[in-house]
Amino acid sequence: MSFMSFDGVADFARSALAPGFAYGSSTVLTIGNFDGVHRGHQELLRRAVVRARGLGVPAVVFTFEPHPVAVLRPDLKLRRLFDADDRREQLEKIGVDILVVEPFSRRFSQLTPEKFLIESVIRPFQPKAVVVGYDFSFGANRAGGIDFLRAHAEAPGGAFDVEVVAPVTIDLGGNETIVSSTRIRQALAVGRADEAKELLGRAYVLRGIVKKGAGRGRTIGIPTANIDPTIEPGLQTGVYAAWALVRGQRMEALVNVGVNPTFEGKDSVVLHIEAHLPKYDGTRNGDLYGEKLELGFIQKIRAERKFSGAEELVAQIQKDIQQGLEILKKEKTL
What we know:
The chain is α/β, with parallel strands linked by helices. The protein has helices spanning 8-14, 39-55, 68-72, 84-94, 106-109, 113-125, 146-151, 181-189, 193-200, 216-219, 261-264, 282-285, 310-330; strands at residues 4-6, 27-31, 59-65, 98-103, 127-133, 137-138, 144-145, 161-165, 169-172, 175-178, 204-211, 225-229, 238-246, 249-258, 272-276, 292-302. It contains 13 helices and 16 strands. It has a six-stranded parallel sheet with strand order 1-4-3-2-5-8. A six-stranded antiparallel beta barrel has the order 11-12-15-14-13-16. A two-stranded antiparallel sheet has the order 6-7. Helix 8 packs antiparallel against helix 9. It starts with a strand and ends with a helix.
């Protein structure tokens, strides 16, 4: 079955799916936010796909947009790790057959666990198995959990197996660390792109369209591509070594995430994402305005700071470029 994506259960119910499958047909289902599709998510998703293949039914992911925390606790100003397109791409790579993205609202959040289970799980997906993480909860006030799920797994007309996937841990600086979206956000907030990469199983990525900037980089001989990111980055300001993906090609990049204090003053609050591609020949290949650019962050080089002027800034950037290239020699993947 080819990968299919639907905007909520209602859209899923109205759609004509692949031959032999329709709303209410049997599935293997997993439920969650899958923000970042990190190593822990990958293990859970692989288990769901294996179960689905063994049972001869589709592997279905049921998720939510916007992120529930953004709706229920806007004061926390949660920043997503990756955009929705990335989540869709990662799920397809793992082998998920169907993605259903339920519009999340306060009203939806007030469904009782019983009602959520019947109306949003059993009726539409008729799961033969539900595969969830060790910390799974659902329903109003998160009153439903794994014990509730297991207790209702023999519901009339909707019996299913419950598989709970244990936390995935990695060695991070000599400490056994549970992989989670929260832990990844913490790493990014202090500039530890290298830690985030270990937790994710891939580089932390920002992508967007190249837009016109102030043009200062070109005037000082170090042109930059300024991107309008698809999500608000949760990465600490600073200068990073990164891989860039542009026009289907991967190339080295030095990326400044910050407010340009040398030119815009220390009180500037406008965040810029500027990538210098040392090996990109703009004279021969033209500018990148309007192009899609993807930046995979590997390691922070230094903090952003204010310089006395262009000459001191250029000297520091030249050092940054050399350091960044040395870092990227050791990192072969985006």
